[in-house]
């Protein structure tokens, strides 16, 4: 059987990603924060002082992309970048007071967003979806 455009799982995932990104973008816009920048901020709100390499690993982004986003967040006054004393190539990101205050506003929005997205989906279904997505990612990584 030949697949139609709508049958491809990658199209369904892409459509979902576009919907989710569009929704969260509208919620973050008043705070001058892009969805990808929010990912960095969420990690820093969880554990301040991560280095850029840790962000590269956690977000599966390249170093240039992380450095650019960090620079933008710094210019907005949300973070400060500090070179490590023992390794000048390593840069740690720290929340500024403005960045910490932003977290008090954004974290509840992120939690509400997660609740909305997961509405009507059981914990078992979420775990099943995570397993399926992990398998898909592993399949793709095998091919690279």
Spell out the blueprint of helices and strands.
Layout: H1 9-28, H2 35-46, H3 52-59, H4 63-75, E1 79-83, E2 91-95, H5 97-117, H6 123-143
Antiparallel strand pairs: 1-2
Helix pairs in contact: 1-5, 3-4
Question: Overview of this structure, please?
Answer:
- The chain is mainly alpha-helical and 144 residues long.
- The chain has a single domain (5-143), classed as Winged helix-like DNA-binding domain superfamily/Winged helix DNA-binding domain (Arc Repressor Mutant, subunit A).
- Helices cover 66% and strands 7% of the residues.
- The chain contains 6 helices and 2 strands.
- It has helices at residues 9-28, 35-46, 52-59, 63-75, 97-117, 123-143; strands at 79-83, 91-95.
- It has a two-stranded antiparallel ribbon.
- Helix 1 (9-28) crosses helix 5 (97-117) and helix 3 (52-59) crosses helix 4 (63-75).
- The longest helix is centred in the last third of the chain and has 21 residues, at 97-117.
- The chain is globular, with a radius of gyration of 18 Å.
- It starts with 8 loop residues before the first helix and ends with a helix.
- 12% of the residues are buried.
Summarize the structure.
The chain has helices spanning 9-28, 35-46, 52-59, 63-75, 97-117, 123-143, and strands at 79-83, 91-95. It has 144 residues and is mainly alpha-helical.
Mean pLDDT: 93
H/E order of the elements?
Answer: HHHHEEHH
**CATH hierarchy, class:** Mainly Alpha
Estimate the global geometry from the Cα principal axes. globular
- Looking at the overall shape, the CATH architecture is Orthogonal Bundle
The number of distinct structural domains comes to: 1
Q: Which homologous superfamily in CATH is the superfamily? A: Winged helix-like DNA-binding domain superfamily/Winged helix DNA-binding domain
CATH topological fold name: Arc Repressor Mutant, subunit A
Which class do the helix and strand fractions yield? mainly alpha
- Beta strand %: 5-15%
Radius of gyration: 18 Å
In whole angstroms, the N-to-C terminal distance is 27 Å
Largest sheet: 2 strands, antiparallel
């Amino acid at each position: 059987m030949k697949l139609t455009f709508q049958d491809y799982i990658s199209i369904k995932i892409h459509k979902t990603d576009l919907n989710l990104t569009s929704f969260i973008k509208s919620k973050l816009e008043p705070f001058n924060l892009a969805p990808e920048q929010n990912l960095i901020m969420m990690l820093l709100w969880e554990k301040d002082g991560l280095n850029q390499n840790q962000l590269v690993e956690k977000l599966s982004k390249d170093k240039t992309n992380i450095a650019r986003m960090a620079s933008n967040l710094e210019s907005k006054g949300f973070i400060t970048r500090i070179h490590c004393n023992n390794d000048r190539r390593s840069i740690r990101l720290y929340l500024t007071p403005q960045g910490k205050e932003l977290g008090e506003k954004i974290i509840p929005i992120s939690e509400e967003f997660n609740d909305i997205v997961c509405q009507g989906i059981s914990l078992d279904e979420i775990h099943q979806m995570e397993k399926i997505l992990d398998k898909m990612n592993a399949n793709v990584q095998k091919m690279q």
